[in-house]
Amino acid sequence: MPCKVKVNRHGYLAFRLYWDGNESWEGTEWRHSKESNQAEARAVLISDHMENATFDYLKWFPEGNRRMSFAQNREASRSQTAEHQGVLCGVDREEKTAICP
């Protein structure tokens, strides 16, 4: 399972994530008790998304430990997509108009 729930040294639950060559620990504010079931259920959902290649780190962990690197990757892919769309549509950059077929 790509996402597991562990108890950290302070007694709080944490998600251990493994996907696409990445590894991360994401802490929670939940203590090891009845919240464990909620965390386990969430870990199953996250694992399903990872296995289906639909996992969005920033959606699940907007304040996560690796948010800066994923935010930078998202911005880079957006600018590449915009450039690619510009080539496909034949955008006239001087006049900023689209010349799409």
Topology:
Layout: E1 3-7, E2 12-19, E3 22-31, H1 35-51, H2 57-60, H3 67-89
Antiparallel strand pairs: 1-2, 2-3
* Helical content (DSSP H or I, runs of 4+): 40-55%
What order do the strands of the largest sheet run in, or round the barrel if closed? Answer: 1-2-3
Summarize the biggest pleated sheet: 3 strands, antiparallel
**First-residue to last-residue Cα separation:** 46 Å
Radius of gyration: 19 Å
Provide a descriptive summary of the structure in words:
- The chain is α+β, with helices and mostly antiparallel strands.
- It folds into 2 domains: 3-62, no CATH class; 66-101, no CATH class.
- 44% of the residues lie in helices and 23% in strands.
- It contains 3 helices and 3 strands; from the N terminus they run βββααα.
- It has a 3-stranded antiparallel beta sheet, covered by helices on one side.
- Strand 1 (3-7) and strand 2 form a beta hairpin.
- The chain is globular, with a radius of gyration of 19 Å.
- It starts with a strand and ends in a 12-residue tail after the last helix.
- The mean pLDDT is 78.
